[in-house]
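pasting Solute carrier family 23 member 1-like for the record, 623 residues
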Amino acid sequence: MTPSTDKELNGLDNPSFMSEDGSHHCASLDHAAQGPEKVKGKAQSNKLAYTVTDIPPWYLCILLGIQHFLTAMGGLISIPLILSKDLCLQHDLLTQSHLISTIFFVSGICTLLQVLFGVRLPIIQGGTFAFLTPTLAMLSLPTWKCPAWTENATLVNASSPEFIEVWQTRMREVQGAIIVASCFQIFVGFSGLIGFLMRFIGPLTIAPTITLVALPLFDSAGDKAGQHWGIACMTIFFIVLFSQYLKDVPVPLPSYRRGKKCHFSPIYVFQIFPVLLGLSLSWLLCYVLTVTDVLPTDPTAYGHLARTDTNGDVLSQAPWFRLPYPGQWGMPTVSLAGIFGLLAGVISSMLESMGDYYACARLSGAPPPPKHAINRGIGMEGIGCLLAGAWGTGNGTTSYSENVGALGITKVGSRMVIVAGACAMLLCGVFGKVGAMFASIPTPVIGGLFLVMFGIITAVGVSNLQYTDMNSSRNIFIFGFSVFAGLAVPNWANKNNTLLETGIIQLDQVIQVLLTTGMFVGGLLGFILDNTIPGTQEERGLLAWKHSHKEEADNSQLISKVYDLPFGIGTKYCAVSWFRYLPACPRNLPGGKKMDELKAAGQESSVKASLERDSEIGADTRI
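structre below
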């Protein structure tokens, strides 16, 4: 399983990024040479059991919905565990479990909003790694660095008011920055500005940005894995074995169907749950080594944190039921430093999600999403980030492409399955023991997981270069310089923060956060250089990149059925004429046709003339 940044538009070895015959997508524009027999064979091999608008049986919805939730599990639990150290919570496992439960709960809410009112495709929403780097940069400011005593487990009393105030002040600062930054994403989405921005952002901007999401996290991964390299390497071995070597090996499992009754069906378990299986086996082995006292009992000894009983108390302390609510950590606070840093994460997240929409549409049997659906999806993700900030997950939300890949595996593209998965997230967010269980995973096991996931994120960023001409010295310079500067400048800024002081505290914090956020430095340099150094559209990769997301003409009724707002909003109810001028609403015209489809058919002029005549005679134009 890959993390949340493994997107279709940035993807490498991603099921959602493969062409319909299973071969990897290339930057070639010559797709028209395929014969009709080959196209027919593709259609037969890609036939879906349920398309996006179908409703499978209730039991199938529940089972496949839980599967989607488990597929997203690795990314969801990783984010609170990474943030815990900088929030001074490394020795407060109970609060870590509350954060995990909160991110489950909010991800369920955001998924429901996205499926019902957003882009309306079967796509899971969850925490984003794009927000991690600027958040960690903000928490590394001198104002927010953890006191030395919070790093000593013997001095930490998790229930003391002093300790609670220490971590909650930091969390409230992160919440405020996420809430304000999410307003920018809401504006960009619902105003239709995302289309304008995409004119200037190409692969050479996205590649260094995504690459630098994970590279600065090598220290965190190395520290956790270094608590016991044997356990960490075992975790890596299991994940790589399941996800790479055994992914095409089916496992016969009992199943039931009316025609066949009880029988065995081949299920690609290793391909669907590689991370979950790898974590479970490593966790089980750690438990055996703990019971047999192979692992040291001395807290100061190497390998002690691999024991399962070091974190065992959290399961008994966690409540059975706990309902997360907005403002549970107090009233969010706002500072300019956090806002500007997180804006880089917001832009990165938006670009990633756009690729997911096209991949999800292709794999769920839906037509390519029209502009109003993309605008609505990006805007709804902004609302999701707003809710995540209000609830206090310490992170935002984005689309998960590993779940897009699961659509291609299961051949079930129904959005009702994702609704069931969102309900599973909500339930797990309410049951406190579930979050506590994941918070008690031994540290080296988490370290092994991080090494795999962060490596994949880095490669995902580099994979954007497949669209560009990498024989061009121009492109090699832009990417290489942007990435190296994105590592060198933050390293220097962290060591020489006193040289950046201007005397204005707020300005100093903004400069410090921006210059210590590698993805901002690298992405900004890539953006400036790519748009100023002369180069052809083909050389820059813009032609191939845009072609991969080219909208194809499709049946207007099908587009309306998939992407129009639910419950008759805009058609039966709230049918006001000015709705069609909103970027996030379908541009319906009299007779049920839409402006976008009529443009594609070359009828734009006649439509405009018809509208002018209607306005002249005062016709009642309904949506």
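DSSP finds 27 helices and four strands in the chain.
The mean pLDDT is 77.
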